[in-house]
Write a structure and sequence with these properties.
The chain is α/β, with parallel strands linked by helices. The chain is 47% helix and 20% strand.
Amino acid sequence: MDSTPPITFLAVIDDAELLSRVRALFEHERTAFSLVSANSVAEGLVHLRNGLFHAVLLECRGGEEAECADLATLVGAASETPIVGLARIENPAAERAFLRAGVQEILLLEELSLPKLKRACRLAAERMYSERGRRFDEERERQVQKFEAIGKLAGGVAHEFNNLLMVILGRCELSGMQLNKPDALKKSLDEIRASGERAATLTRQLLAYSRRQVLQLKVLEVNTLIREMEKLLNRVLGEDIDLKVSLASDAGKIKADPGQIEQVLLSLVVYCRGNLPRSGGSITIETSNVDIDAAYAARHGGVAPGSYVMIAVGDNGKGLEAEDLQRVFDPFFTSQEQGKGEGLGLSVVYGIAKQSGGNVWAYSEPQYGTVFKLYLPRVGGPVGSGIKNAVKPSKGGETILVAEDEAGVRELILEILQAQGYRTFAAPNGQAALELLRRSPGEIQLLLTDLVMPQMHGQDLFAAAHKELPDLRVVFMSGYTDRGAIELGVLSAGSAYLQKPFGPDALARKVREVLDATPSR
């Protein structure tokens, strides 16, 4: 008699008819297979905690946000168990959502049979182990990069402290020779004190970078803090640079160390000044309230959903190349000429943002300046405020053309729009988008375009398309703030605009708002 234990499946299926079909597959294979059923994710979690399963069979519906959130919980509990989704109809957008949430394989019910189920489970297991290997490689790569960063940090700090110690020790020796020369002795002592102060500043920066500095937390009015710093910032910038301050009247409060937020603002303004030519330019500081939803947070590691105050600091300088933008928060890295942006620099800004419970994000395009966005948790809002109670945006069936040169951003936007019921076309640049519009006159109702793209910018694309298609609606998008984009000359005042980064709800609302608006003639 075969004593081999049966292969055990956990079926998380609410639909009785579907569960009956799955059970029927195993009717004649009871010695080889065992099926445990759960009619909800919560019940499935209980079974996963209490038993070992070879695979999880999961009923998949429309791929809605709440369903994927439940699935993420199940995936976390079933980290060592492959998951096969059972779908009633073919739905590419929903399938992508489930695969992204953690399902390893999708099987259509019309194809349901024991051989195909066994094959799906095998493929799911292979994909799970492959994904686990990929994550291991990524973690190993992160550790290598971390050690490289620590090595660079240690080398940079050693260099800085060696210079300081040389001044201190050298001046101490000179002081011994200058005891009968009071003026020379005073100069040496002043240099020793100045070097000691620089060493103390470097230590504070190291603490901020490592997020170990003791914070003096206070509830702050962001707008008030910026206004109080405005005079100082103007003195730092000088007469050749125009400081423009645009503060949202409803900008909320934050709980942070005022000294650290002042340091962040000063560091960002000084960095932006370094991006400007000697002839001058302009730097803009803006504030606004921002709500980050769960869908956006899930796609951006280290970001928590919730209500934030955003402080944006931007310049109209030369901008950064992509490889420099990726390293802009690294310690002792600078893309600026010698003498500008040295030391721990923006890595301190990153450390303070993280220690304050927030995030900082940089956006730049060559020749179109750079903007830094600091997100800090908002406090003291009215009861019931925030994004949790917001009404879900309406779905639609119109056709939208997405023009975006970043492939990952383009694919994400397409998935969001398709999940909202829209038909979509995509183009990697302005010229390709214009050709698509000309080939499909009247078929596309809305153009969703990035502002800065190769070959043709978004505003030029819409201007050319609008001459031939006067009923075409448009939404522009970019990482710049709307005021910053207007001042850079890439956006017209009054245009429908989405500021990156944005989540699915923000995108769906803006698209619906523009499509539903009465056309202007």
